[in-house]
Task: inverse folding
């Protein structure tokens, strides 16, 4: 909460969190309060060049909106998924947005004339949860986002390390089930192949003979495959196949988080992403399974994320505020 130092009364930063389907955008004051939000479709199917143009247009529009409202946009923070070289300001690789070595920071600085920082979506989400959300008040936080995939951010004293190649925190690709289900990365038995929201839906469909769920669409009017949330509901209602798939996911997550705790020894594990919406159906058995796995390690607090899908955008704002 130090960025308020030396801030002008009308200062705001422009923040964008670019996802595979949508962009969450905001104008954020130095004290962390949001004064304006917008959402725009990413439309990643148009290709990376078009997506970059949209990012720059939206950022320029937000800076213009700030000025029109009598505010002073002082910096820009952009969060993107995939592999991000934060030091160089380059979006190195992203499966769902299609980025390949896009020098996004330079492009944005050129277009907007504002100091710009580029961050990784999960790392900045973790930053926001650690500083403003569920990890607030603790110095060592592991933030784990469980959705289509699983990724983590290790935040120490309000900063998330990005690794030597911009790829730190890939806890979804910790091997938890050797010879297990094939992961999107090409290996068998990664955590995210068993316990991501999409893996849970896929494994339930396979277990019940509904067949693979095909593309990751929003579902049709009829015959919509069961989502991970549906599997949690059916498991709670005692349906055997759902209970088995859900329990296997929880056990795999506990293995992955136990590895995280062995490496990082954090005070608080914050779980966010779509799967965290399952609430006690996830957290009660996961906490028990994680604690079972702790031998000499201290048991971390296991809590649900508090900022929802705003975390990435707030984190992008924090990066921009830090960088001013
Ligand atoms: Zn993998």
Result:
């Amino acid at each position: 909460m130090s960025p308020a130092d030396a801030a002008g009364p009308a200062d705001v930063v422009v923040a964008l969190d670019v996802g595979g389907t949508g962009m969450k955008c905001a104008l954020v004051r130095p004290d962390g309060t949001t004064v304006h939000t917008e959402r725009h479709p990413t439309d990643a199917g148009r290709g990376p060049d078009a997506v970059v143009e949209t990012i720059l247009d939206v950022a320029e529009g937000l800076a213009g909106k700030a000025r029109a409202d009598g505010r002073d946009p002082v910096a820009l923070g952009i969060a993107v998924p995939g592999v991000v070289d934060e030091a160089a300001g380059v979006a190195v690789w992203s499966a769902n947005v299609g980025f390949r070595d896009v020098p996004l920071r330079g492009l944005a600085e050129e277009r907007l004339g504002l100091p710009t920082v580029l961050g990784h979506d999960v790392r900045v989400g973790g930053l926001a949860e650690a500083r403003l959300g569920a990890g607030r008040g603790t110095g060592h936080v592991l933030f784990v986002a469980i959705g289509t995939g699983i990724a983590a951010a290790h935040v120490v004293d309000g900063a998330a390390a990005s690794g030597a190649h911009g790829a730190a925190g890939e806890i979804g690709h910790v091997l938890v089930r050797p010879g297990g289900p094939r992961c999107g990365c090409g290996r068998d038995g990664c955590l995210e192949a068993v316990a991501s929201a999409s893996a849970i839906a896929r494994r339930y469909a396979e277990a019940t003979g509904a067949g693979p769920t095909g593309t990751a669409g929003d579902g049709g009017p009829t015959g919509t495959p069961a989502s991970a949330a549906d599997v949690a509901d059916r498991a709670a209602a005692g349906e055997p196949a759902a209970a088995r798939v859900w329990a296997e996911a929880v056990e795999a997550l506990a293995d992955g988080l136990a590895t995280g705790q062995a490496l990082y020894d954090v005070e608080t594990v914050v779980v966010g992403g779509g799967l965290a919406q399952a609430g006690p159906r996830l957290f009660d058995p996961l906490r028990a399974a994680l604690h079972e796995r702790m031998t000499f390690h201290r048991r971390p607090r296991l809590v649900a994320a508090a900022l929802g899908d705003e975390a990435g955008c707030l984190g992008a704002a924090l990066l921009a505020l830090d960088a001013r």
